[in-house]
Structures are given as structure tokens and as C-alpha cells.
């Protein structure tokens, strides 16, 4: 099954046409012990371009 991760963070070097090209993506809680909404999560695989 093809995986598809849509991501609008175009400044990430894994981003290609608003899709994620990384072979795997790590998502963690954004400094909280129990996430209850999207801002409380974040992509750890993000890597700035350049
Ligand atoms: S690694 Fe994370 S931030 Fe970068 S394109 Fe993939 S999902 Fe988006």
C-alpha cells in the first residue's frame, strides 16, 4: 500500500510538492505529557533546507 503524507511545511528538505518524501517520519508530543490537539504534536523528522 503506498504511503502518502501530506505536509505543507515546504521549507523542510523532505517536502516535495506539499507531500513528505522521507522514508519514515517520527512524530512526538510537543512538550506535553498527553496531547489533546494537533499543536501538541510535532514532526521530529523536519530538516530545514540548505
Ligand atoms: S519530514 Fe515532517 S516536516 Fe518534513 S516534509 Fe515530512 S512530514 Fe513534513
Explain briefly what this protein structure is.
About 0% of the residues lie in helices and about 20% in strands. It is mainly β and about 50 residues long. The N and C termini lie far apart (about 30 Å).
Coarse structural class: mainly beta
Distance between the termini: 32 Å
H/E element sequence = EEEE
If you average the pLDDT, what whole number results?
95
Protein name: DUF1540 domain-containing protein
Organism: Desulfofundulus salinus
InterPro entries: DUF1540
Biased composition (Polar residues): 33-43
Could you describe the 3D structure shown?
By secondary structure, the chain is an all-beta fold. It has one domain (1-50). It has strands at 15-16, 19-20, 27-29, 41-43. The strands form 2 sheets. A two-stranded antiparallel ribbon has the order 1-2. The structure holds iron/sulfur cluster. Residues 5, 7, 9, 12, 14-15, 20, 22, 25, 43, 45-46 line the site of iron/sulfur cluster (SF4).
Q: What order do the helices and strands come in, and which of them pair?
A:
Blueprint (H helix, E strand, L loop, with lengths): L14 E2 L2 E2 L6 E3 L11 E3 L7
Antiparallel strand pairs: 1-2, 3-4
Iron/sulfur cluster (SF4) binds next to loops.
